[in-house]
Amino acid sequence: MAHLIFKDINKVYPNGFHAVHDFNLEIADGEFICLVGSSGCGKSTTLRMVAGLEDITAGEFYIDGVLANQMSSRDRGIAMVFQSYALYPHLTVYENLAFGLTLEGIDADVIDEKVKATAKILGLTDYLERFPRALSGGQCQRVAVGRALIRKVNIFLMDEPLSNLDAKQRVTMRSEIKQIHRSVGATTIYVTHDQTEAMTMSDRIVVMNAGRIQQVGTPYELYFHPQNLFVAGFIGEPPMNFIRSTVENGHIKTAALDLDLAPIVKDVKAIEGKKVVFAFRPEAIETEPKDKNSYAIKSQVELTELLGDTTNVYANVGDVNVILKVNPHKTPAMGSEFTFYVPHHAAYVFDEETEQVVESDQKRH
Q1: How far is CA 282 from CA 52, 254, 315, 325, in A?
Q2: 3-class SS string, 99-113
Q3: Which CATH number characterizes residue 306's domain?
Q4: Which end of the chain is less congested by CB atoms within 10 angstroms, N or C?
Q5: What is the C-alpha to C-alpha distance for residues 79 and 153, in angstroms, rounded to an integer?
């Protein structure tokens, strides 16, 4: 295991592109951290700086209290798993797993023991004599993970390792990687653009945008307590609904809405006259109010999608498009008027100018 500290890390390329801005983070021994964000947000660049594949322009990076900025990749105790499996096609699974140990000159008996133990963990025992071309995508990715695992390093770096797999294989590999992490205990940094991977696998998630950290927290914290509009819109599928308005006399007013903010905003006077964003998650709505602590919102249904356990309802609230998730047995008819309810505890308000969440007295659940 390893304890990692990032202090004001910046990466600026020779052409002047500033890829990572003031990255500050502390990762505990054995923690599983996911870096998430859209393409080009700086997450893979950050991973490559950890690996020593990219120079750090400014800032300090520590591994177990030792400054590692100039430390060679070999000395960092790191193993990487990439998006591409990067297996040697002319070598068997056994030989691919053993390759790194063979280069280190480790005794053949020790290699054999380590390869078989690793293969057992990954369910590859029956495939040791096969070549990569005879394996499925999921099996190839397991071999790639095994090649990193067998080295017994303290830090695992994974860069979009499941992006080449189909949906079913991704679900299987997510659970397998998490189980491997529990059994091995190595500090893991996992890069992905897939928020489902991040939510289901990580101890904490680092959400990045345009090279900057937007928020760091547990999956629960990011889902129920987003600190800004970007995190609120990025975490959750379908994404959070946003309705923009100006606060007038403590109310959000649009052609279709008139909502009193007093029940959900701690200091309504502080946002009087400001442009704000009223937000709620598609799955947080109710078709019938459980009590008086909710907002009734009228909408016009445009389209419905039955997904089995739920139905996605695409509707308009005035001129704003929203997505709602409802019980399939209570699916409204297309073209109908549909009143839904947003519980006060599930409603958010963001300052449109700063994009930061407005403080609330509501307990999120």
Answers
A1: 42, 20, 11, 5
A2: HHHHHCCCCHHHHHH
A3: 2.40.50.140
A4: C
A5: 7
Q: Residue 332: which of 350, 351, 347, 314 has the closest Cα?
A: 314
| Domain stops at, among 194, 229, 264 | 229
Is residue 105 assigned to a domain? Answer: yes
Residue 358 is assigned to a structural domain of this protein = no
* pLDDT of 79: 86
Residue owning tokens 């937000």:
279
Question: Of 228, 227, 94, 70, which is closest to residue 150 (Cα–Cα)?
Answer: 94
Q: What is the largest CA-CA distance in the chain?
A: 78
Could you report how far apart the first and last alpha carbons of the chain are, in Å?
34
pLDDT of residue 184: 80
Q: What's the whole-model pTM score?
A: 0.88
Same domain, 195 and 252: no
Amino acid at 169: Q
The answer to whether 284 touches 362, Cβ cutoff 8 Å, is: no
Q: Give me the pLDDT at residue 179, please.
A: 82
* Residue 165 covered by a domain: yes
Residues paired with 78 in a beta bridge: 155
Question: How far is CA 37 from its chain centroid?
Answer: 7
pLDDT averaged per 10 residues, the chain (length 365): 93 96 97 93 95 95 95 88 82 91 87 89 89 88 83 86 78 82 87 90 96 97 96 93 95 91 93 95 93 93 95 95 95 95 96 93 71
Residues 77 and 178 occupy one common structural domain: yes
Nearest to 221 by CA among 22, 24, 352, 365: 365
Task: Tell me how many helices (H) and strands (E) the chain has.
Answer: 8, 19
Which domain does 80 fall in, by range?
4-229
Residues 6 or more apart in contact with residue 240 via CB below 8 angstroms: 226, 232, 233, 279, 280, 281, 282, 348
Is residue 235 one of the residues assigned to a domain? no
* Interatomic CA distance for residues 201 and 32, integer angstroms: 8
pLDDT of residue 190: 94
**Do 65 and 191 share a domain, yes or no?**
yes
Domain boundary among 165, 195, 229: 229
pLDDT of residue 186: 87
